[in-house]
C-alpha cells in the first residue's frame, strides 16, 4: 500500500480549501513574523508555569547566532528550532498546491541560513551549537536533539518534493549521516534513543526519497532500541558531569512517560506523553510496512486498540491530564481538566494514516476523520491567527481564571505560545490534507476521506484520473468521476462508522459491491467518465460513552456525520450544566451561511433546571420538593468552531433524561 503523491492531488473542496487558503495567505506569513519577533502580539504561557519562556520566539534569531551572523545566546525552549522546521514543511506543502515565488524565495533564504548554522560534521541544533557544544548527545532525556533533527528531515523531504531543489535534502542527508555515525549497536556508538520520538519518522521519509538503506536501518534501530535498556535516559543524566538541567523538570518523569519502560513490541497500553506516544506509533507503523515486520505491526494494533478504545475523547483528542500532557488510565477522560493537545491530535492523524498504509480498515479511517474534523481544527481560530494548545470538552471561564488546576484550559485562543509546537504543526497538516484522501496498491484505489479533489494516480502502468465532488461534511452525497482507461481495477469506498444507511450507484444504476472491514469494494472494467455516487445518510446521533467513563455517565454527545457538536453560552446562556435533553428530543438541522463562516447548526427543545429563590445563601439543602425545569430552545454548533465569538461557557457532553 502506498500514498498518492501530493503534487498529483488538487484539493477543490469548499470546506478544506478555505483552511488551505488561510494557512497559505494568513497563517504562514503571520507565523513567519512571529518566528522573526516582528509580530505585535502577546505570547502566552500554555499553562500556569512561570518558567515557560514567553518574552519572544527568537527562533530565527537563534539560527543567525548559530550561523555566526549575530552575537548572543540561545533563547526559548531547547526544541525551538522545530518551530522553524514545521513552518518550512508547511511552506513546502503550500508550494505544492500553487506557485508562490515570494514565499519560495523566503524559504530558500531560510534553507541557506540553516546550512550556515550546520556544523562541518553535519550536526545541527542551535542550542548546542551556541551554548552547549560539550553537551551534544549527552542528555537525550531532555535535549530533543533527535526530535528537532526529525522535524528538519521531514521538512527537507517535503521541500525537495515540492520544488525539486536538492540543497535542503543534502543538508538533511549530512545531518542523518552525523546521527548514523553517533548512534547504533556498533562499538563506540551511543546505544540509545531520544527522549522524544520524531527522528524515526524523518528517517523513514528520507529513505523513501533517497532509497538509502542506512536511513531505514537507523530508523528501525531507534524503534527497536527504545526500552531495551529502560534506564538509558536516566543513566545519561547521571553520567553527565554537568548536572545543570537543559529542560527543567524532565528528570522527574519515569520511563513510561518516554515510552521507554519496555521494548515497543512488548508494550500493551498507551502510556506517557501523548504526543511522544503517537509519534512513536506513527514511526512503528511505517517501519513495519517498509520492512514487512509482522511483530511490529501486531504491536501497532495492540497500541491502537489501547488508545482508541479506552483512552480517546469523542472529538479524537488524546491526553487526559495537564501533568505531563499525558495518558492516565483506561476510561479516565475528564472533560474540564483534560489536555487534548493539538499536536497529539495531529499525531493521531499521522498514526491512523500509516495504519491505513499497512491495512485498509475502516477503524483507522474513522479515527483519521474524527480527529481531523474535530480536535485538530479546533486548535485554530477561523481567522488563522489564534490557536489552542489545549482542546477542552467543557469550559467555565471562572474556573479557567481562578482554578490553578485549570489554568491550561483557555476560553479564547491566544496568538502564540511560549511552547509553540502546535500552530506550525497544524499548518503543515492542513496544507498537506490531500495526502490523507487516498492510498493505493496494484489493484485497488482506496478512498479514506470525502474531500472534493482532482487526482491522478498510476495503476497497472496507466494514469487513472479520479475527480471527487461533495459538500461533505454538511451533506453525505459524494460523486466520483473515474477516467479508467478501459482497465479492470477496484475502487474501495470507506463507509464511516457513523453511517447507518448508504447507497452506491455507478452511472446511476445499482452496482454489485463487497463490504469488508468498513470499505465497499467495487470491481469492474472502468471506462472514461464512469460516475460513482455514494450517498451517506447523515442523521443527528446521540453518542454515549462507555459506562466506565465516569465523567460522561448519563450524558450524550451530539454528532452529525463526522462533526461533533457542542453548546456555547453565546447561543444558550450561562450555567450550561443545568441543561438536559428530554427523552424523546427532536433535532432540526439548518445550514446557516452567516454563522461561523457557514455551518450546519442543530436546534432542539431542551430543558433547563429552575434554580428556586428559596435557595438564598444556602449551600446545601434537604428540600425534597420536585425539581422544576423550563423548556429551552438549544442551539448546537460544531465543536471545532467554538470560541470564535464572545468568551463564555462551552460543553460537549449534555445530561440526558
UniProtKB/TrEMBL annotation:
GO MF: beta-L-arabinofuranosidase activity
SUPFAM superfamilies: Six-hairpin glycosidases (SSF48208)
GO BP terms in the entry: carbohydrate metabolic process
Protein's UniProt name: Non-reducing end beta-L-arabinofuranosidase
Keyword annotations from UniProtKB, A to Z: Glycosidase, Hydrolase
EC code: 3.2.1.185
Name of the top EC class for this enzyme: hydrolase
Annotated organism of origin: Clostridium felsineum
Gene3D superfamilies with a match to the protein in the record: 1.50.10.10
Statement: the UniProt record of this protein carries the keyword Hydrolase: yes
Amino acid at each position: 500500500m502506498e500514498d498518492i503523491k501530493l503534487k498529483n492531488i488538487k484539493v477543490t473542496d469548499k470546506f478544506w480549501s478555505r483552511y488551505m487558503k488561510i494557512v497559505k495567505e494568513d497563517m504562514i506569513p503571520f507565523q513567519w513574523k512571529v518566528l522573526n519577533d516582528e509580530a505585535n502580539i502577546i505570547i502566552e504561557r500554555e499553562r500556569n508555569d512561570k518558567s515557560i519562556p514567553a518574552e519572544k520566539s527568537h527562533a530565527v534569531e537563534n539560527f543567525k547566532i548559530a550561523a555566526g551572523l549575530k552575537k548572543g545566546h540561545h533563547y526559548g525552549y531547547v526544541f525551538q528550532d522545530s518551530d522553524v522546521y514545521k513552518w518550512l514543511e508547511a511552506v513546502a506543502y503550500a508550494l505544492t498546491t500553487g506557485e508562490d515565488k515570494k514565499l519560495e524565495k523566503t524559504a530558500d533564504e531560510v534553507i541557506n541560513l540553516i546550512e550556515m548554522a550546520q556544523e562541518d560534521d553535519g550536526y545541527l541544533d542551535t542550542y548546542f551549537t551556541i551554548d552547549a557544544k560539550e553537551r551534544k548527545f549527552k542528555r537525550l532525556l531532555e535535549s530533543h536533539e533527535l526530535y528537532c533533527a526529525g522535524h528538519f528531515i521531514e521538512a527537507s523531504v517535503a521541500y525537495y518534493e515540492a520544488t525539486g531543489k536538492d540543497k535542503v535534502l543534502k543538508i538533511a542527508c549530512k545531518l542523518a549521516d552525523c546521527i548514523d555515525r553517533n548512534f547504533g549497536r556498533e562499538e563506540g556508538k551511543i546505544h540509545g534513543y531520544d527522549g522524544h520520538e520524531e527522528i524515526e519518522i524523518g528517517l523513514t521519509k528520507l529513505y523513501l526519497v533517497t532509497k538509502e538503506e542506512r536511513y531505514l536501518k537507523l530508523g528501525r534501530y531507534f524503534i527497536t532500541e527504545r526500552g531495551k535498556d529502560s534506564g538509558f535516559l536516566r543513566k545519561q543524566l547521571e553520567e553527565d558531569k554537568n548536572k545543570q538541567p537543559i529542560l527543567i523538570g524532565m528528570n522527574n518523569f519515569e520511563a513510561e512517560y518516554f515510552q521507554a519502560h519496555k521494548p515497543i513490541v512488548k508494550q500493551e497500553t498507551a502510556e506517557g506523553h501523548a504526543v511522544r506516544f503517537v509519534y512513536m506509533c506513527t514511526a512503528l507503523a511505517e517501519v513495519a510496512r517498509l520492512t514487512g515486520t509482522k511483530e511490529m505491526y501486531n504491536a501497532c494494533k495492540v497500541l491502537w486498540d489501547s488508545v482508541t478504545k479506552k483512552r480517546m475523547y469523542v472529538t479524537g483528542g488524546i491526553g487526559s491530564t495537564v501533568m505531563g500532557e499525558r495518558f492516565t488510565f483506561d476510561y479516565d477522560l475528564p472533560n474540564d481538566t483534560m489536555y487534548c493537545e493539538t499536536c497529539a491530535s495531529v499525531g493521531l492523524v499521522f498514526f491512523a494514516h500509516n495504519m491505513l498504509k499497512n491495512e485498509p480498515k475502516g477503524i483507522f479511517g474513522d479515527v483519521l476523520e474524527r480527529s481531523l474534523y474535530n480536535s485538530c481544527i479546533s486548535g485554530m481560530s477561523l481567522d488563522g491567527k489564534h490557536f489552542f494548545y489545549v482542546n477542552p470538552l467543557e469550559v467555565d471561564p471562572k474556573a479557567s481564571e481562578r482554578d490553578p488546576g485549570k489554568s491550561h484550559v483557555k476560553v479564547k485562543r491566544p496568538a502564540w505560545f511560549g511552547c509553540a509546537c502546535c500552530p506550525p504543526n497544524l499548518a503543515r497538516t492542513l496544507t498537506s490534507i490531500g495526502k490523507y484522501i487516498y492510498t493505493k496498491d496494484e489493484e485497488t484505489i482506496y478512498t479514506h476521506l470525502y474531500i472534493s479533489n482532482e487526482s491522478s494516480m498510476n495503476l497497472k502502468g496507466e494514469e487513472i484520473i479520479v475527480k471527487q465532488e461533495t459538500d461533505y461534511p454538511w451533506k453525505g452525497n459524494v460523486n466520483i468521476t473515474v477516467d479508467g482507461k478501459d482497465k479492470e481495477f477496484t475502487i474501495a469506498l470507506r463507509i464511516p462508522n457513523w453511517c447507518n444507511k448508504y447507497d452506491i450507484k455507478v452511472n446511476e444504476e445499482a452496482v454489485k459491491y463487497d463490504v469488508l472491514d468498513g470499505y465497499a469494494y467495487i470491481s469492474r472494467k472502468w471506462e472514461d467518465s464512469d460516475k460513482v455516487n455514494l450517498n451517506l445518510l447523515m442523521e443527528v446521533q446521540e453518542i454515549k460513552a462507555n459506562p466506565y467513563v465516569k465523567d460522561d455517565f448519563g450524558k450524550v454527545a451530539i454528532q452529525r456525520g463526522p462533526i461533533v457538536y457542542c453548546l456555547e453560552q453565546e447561543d444558550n446562556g450561562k450555567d450550561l450544566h443545568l441543561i438536559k435533553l428530554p427523552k424523546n428530543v427532536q433535532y432540526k438541522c439548518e445550514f446557516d451561511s452567516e454563522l461561523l463562516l457557514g455551518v450546519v447548526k442543530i436546534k432542539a427543545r431542551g430543558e433547563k433546571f429552575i434554580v428556586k429563590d428559596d435557595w438564598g445563601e444556602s449551600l446545601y439543602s434537604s428540600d425534597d420538593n420536585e425539581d422544576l425545569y423550563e423548556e429551552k430552545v438549544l442551539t448546537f454548533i460544531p465543536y471545532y468552531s467554538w470560541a470564535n465569538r464572545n468568551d463564555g461557557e462551552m460543553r460537549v457532553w449534555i445530561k440526558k433524561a
